[in-house]
Specification:
Strand content: under 5%
CATH superfamily of the largest domain: Alpha-catenin/vinculin-like
GO molecular function: actin filament binding; cadherin binding
Distance between the termini: 34 Å
CATH architecture of the largest domain: Up-down Bundle
Number of strands: 0
Main location: cytoplasm
Order of helices and strands: HHHHHHHHHHHHHHHHHHHHHHHHHH
Number of helices: 26
Radius of gyration: 31 Å
CATH class of the largest domain: Mainly Alpha
Shape: globular
Structural class: mainly alpha
Subcellular location: Cytoplasm
Organism: Oryzias latipes (Japanese rice fish)
GO biological process, one term: Rho protein signal transduction
Length: about 750
């Protein structure tokens, strides 16, 4: 019980914690119960210690009682879980009562030397009660989580039914009516799945969920224009093909979401992920390095077989028509060098097995292991350079979107021959991009990035033919406004995927260079009753395609600044410093605002953006406060520099806050306000990015000089984690990780949220 049970997600058979909300709800409980069990067994207990133990035990019991009441309410509303939930609640209540009885050792009660069983006289009973409480509370949370899954499935089923109706409509009036209902159902489904995505612990599932939700988000607009085109031109075969492809893709994405939340087996994806070269290289190096510990853990034949399987996968690079001759020769040469080093390793390894582990033989084996791993590292680097280099070149070449422009022009002119010609060029471009995504998947080295590569590959593979069918429809009906709008929507989806591919390249490079680009989700969407006064009367507006395009450059600058902040924070040694925590929040908020400029992410309307800008300014002002405190520990020159930059940051935060709260009127006013908000956010993040390296440098300088500034009082952030925690303080709830009534009430919000969803 000394270690947190949250680190081992199985409390009993079949019970597994799969979401962060459940895990985070348990952490305070685990912390406080661990404190009770691991108290120092002193011969004499102070009155303060006895009182603290009594108070903690009673607080746990009362809070568990409230928790159980919520669980019982959930059980009464969900008959299929009534028996299981009722049993779990009964066990939790019984365990809470047992803990209260065992900790009933306060100063106003008889001394623990009498015949009563207490935490002091029977620690085994306390451990047993704690185990029962943790197991039963976990079961209540996991059962409540099933209700969320049920809600997602129910929402999906509603969407599917409406989708079937949409597919069969024959009039515009009927289509408009049903599509309005479909839109509302998709919003509900998007909120449920978005919450679930952020709550998942498994990064692979989270990435798959993000990919499926991205498909649904983009396909909703495609479905609208493709259906309208089909209704306007019911006898057009290319319009029908275009529409059918959208409906099919939406159904596949809906099914993938359900596979993730119900943990159904996905067909073929595991094979794709396990076949990546990066995974193969990692496994091969691990196998080679394991020879240091055990010479007989595998056979030489299995090692060489593993190498040959790996080399065979490099044929995706060497057999490609788009791989240059010099690149192909380098890959083949490195594969041959790896074979030679592996053969030398096997020879040395067998020799050590036969002659024994003499010092010379062991040193030779170590040299052979290092050489083999080094040559494998060179191969990985070359494959990475080839894949990333080709992707970069393709993005530069296709950035001008010449085939798309030509298709639009040919379709508008009704030139079927030109449409066919440019369709062939787009198909060739699509094949290049699909193959490049496959190569990027080989060198991604993390499952979330591999899944993103697979999603990009599938997107190019599907949208390419859809653009062609939309262009054919326009060529057959060149005066059709809806056919032209439909082609524009598919072309925009293609361009958006090219932008995503550019970001994917950066993420892959970050991982390769040791900079993990994992971003913590930051959600602060306005909830009913929690808007600011100026936002209540404002009207939510969505930017149109032209406005989003003009926002793209500003948004990209914001994205790069948030990446710069992340990169600077990775250089800090002070992981728990307030400046780090607040800067991470700022980077995450800025990233969500960047996604808004692309029409993606959780911010859907201008109202959401302006609320997020207020949150950004508030978090920025908190950072200013931390910087002000930090500056008091500096000498005059250093203090002046930090304060000067801090004053700039304060002014920018106030400017952003005022701009976000200022009401606007007129048709173009919302767009102008969005533009000024993004620019102000960019300026704010620029100052933050310049302040971080300065502060980090000053902290390291003062640490190295061991001046008086490094005292525990001045640098409490660095000393806090190593300071001993007194037993009485921990029991009285002074520990920030403690589990008093307040902490449990706060974490019960997670369960209340599950109930209310």
């Amino acid at each position: 019980m000394a270690s947190s049970p949250c680190s081992n997600t199985n409390f009993d058979s079949g019970l597994e914690i799969k979401t962060r909300s459940v895990e985070q709800t348990l952490i305070p409980l685990v912390t406080q119960i661990t404190t009770l069990i691991n108290h120092k067994d002193k011969p004499k207990k102070s009155e303060r210690t006895l009182t603290a133990i009594h108070r903690v035990g009673q607080a746990v019991n009362v809070a568990v009682g409230r928790f159980v009441a919520v669980g019982e309410a959930i059980a009464s509303e969900n008959q299929e879980l009534k028996d299981e939930m009722g049993q779990a609640c009964f066990e939790a209540r019984r365990a809470g009562d047992a803990i209260a009885q065992l900790t009933d050792v306060g100063s106003d009660t008889p001394a623990p030397s009498d015949d009563r069983v207490t935490v002091f006289s029977d620690r085994t009973a306390m451990v047993k009660a704690a185990r029962m409480l943790l197991s039963s509370v976990t079961k209540v949370l996991v059962l409540a989580d099933r209700i969320v899954i049920k809600q997602i499935i129910t929402s999906r089923n509603k969407v599917l039914v409406t989708l079937d109706h949409l597919e069969r409509v024959s009039t515009f009036q009927e289509f408009v009516q049903i599509f309005s209902q479909f839109g509302n159902e998709m919003v509900e489904f998007a909120h449920l799945t978005g919450d679930r995505q952020n709550d998942l612990k498994d990064e692979k599932k989270k990435a798959r969920m993000a990919a499926a939700r991205a498909v649904l988000e983009k396909c909703t607009m495609m479905l609208l224009t493709a259906s309208k085109t089909c209704l306007r031109h019911p006898d057009c075969e290319s319009a029908r093909i275009n529409k059918d492809a959208v409906f099919h893709r939406m159904r596949c994405a809906l099914e993938q979401v359900i596979e993730i939340v119900t943990e159904a087996r996905s067909s073929g994806e595991n094979k794709i992920l396990s076949a990546s070269i990066c995974n193969g290289i990692r496994d091969f190096k691990y196998t080679v390095e394991s020879l240091r510990e055990d010479l007989f853990s595998l056979t030489p034949q299995s090692l060489t077989g593993q190498l040959e399987a790996l080399v065979e996968r490099t044929e995706d690079f060497t057999d490609s028509a788009y791989t240059g001759h010099e690149q192909r020769q380098r890959i083949l040469s490195l594969c041959q060098l790896t074979r030679q080093d592996t053969q030398q390793l096997v020879h040395t390894w067998v020799g050590v097995q036969q002659s024994g582990s003499s010092k010379e033989a062991t040193e030779n084996l170590e040299v052979a292991i290092l050489k083999t791993c080094h040559s494998m590292g060179d191969l990985r680097r070359e494959l990475h350079n080839v894949a990333v280099g080709r992707a970069s070149d393709l993005l530069k070449v296709h950035g001008e979107q010449l085939p798309l422009r030509a298709l639009k022009a040919a379709g508008a002119e009704g030139n079927l021959e030109a449409v066919a010609d440019y369709s062939r060029k787009l198909t060739e471009q699509k094949e290049q991009l699909v193959e490049t995504c496959r190569l990027l998947c080989h060198v991604s080295c993390t499952e979330p990035l591999e899944i993103t590569c697979i999603h990009a590959e599938e997107t190019f593979h599907v949208i390419g033919p859809q653009i062609i069918s939309a262009a054919q429809t326009l060529a057959l009906h060149p005066s059709s406004k809806i056919a032209r709008e439909n082609l524009d929507v598919f072309c925009e989806a293609w361009e958006s995927q090219l932008c995503d591919m550019g970001l994917l390249l950066k993420e892959i490079n970050d991982v390769f260079e040791g900079r993990r680009g994992d971003r913590k989700p930051y959600l602060s969407l306005p909830r009913p009753g929690k808007h600011s006064a100026s936002l209540k009367s404002a009207k939510a507006v969505k930017l149109d395609a032209e406005e989003q395009t003009s926002m793209a450059k500003l948004g990209l600058e914001l994205r790069l600044l948030s990446s710069d902040v992340d990169a600077e924070l990775e250089k800090w040694d002070e992981e728990e410093h307030d400046i780090i925590r607040q800067s991470q929040s700022l980077a995450s908020i800025a990233y969500s605002m960047y996604l808004f400029t692309r029409g993606e992410g959780v911010l859907k309307t201008t109202l959401d953006l302006f609320h997020q800008a207020e949150v950004l300014s508030e978090e920025g002002l908190q950072l200013c406060s931390s910087l002000q405190t930090f500056s008091t520990r500096l000498v005059d020159e250093e203090k002046a520099v930090v304060l000067t930059e801090n004053e700039k940051l304060v002014a920018l935060c106030q400017q952003l806050q005022m701009g976000a709260k200022t009401p606007v009127q007129g048709k173009t006013a919302p767009f102008q306000k969005v533009d000024s908000t993004i620019q102000a956010s960019r300026s704010l993040m620029t100052v933050v990015a310049s302040l971080l390296p300065l502060c980090n440098k000053l902290i390291k300088k003062h640490k190295s000089e061991r001046t008086s500034l490094s005292s525990p009082q001045d640098w409490r952030e660095t000393q806090h984690t190593s300071a001993p925690v007194k037993e009485d303080a921990a029991l009285n709830g002074n520990n920030s990780n403690g589990f008093g009534v307040k902490s449990l009430d706060e974490h019960m919000a997670s369960l209340n949220l599950l109930e209310s969803k």
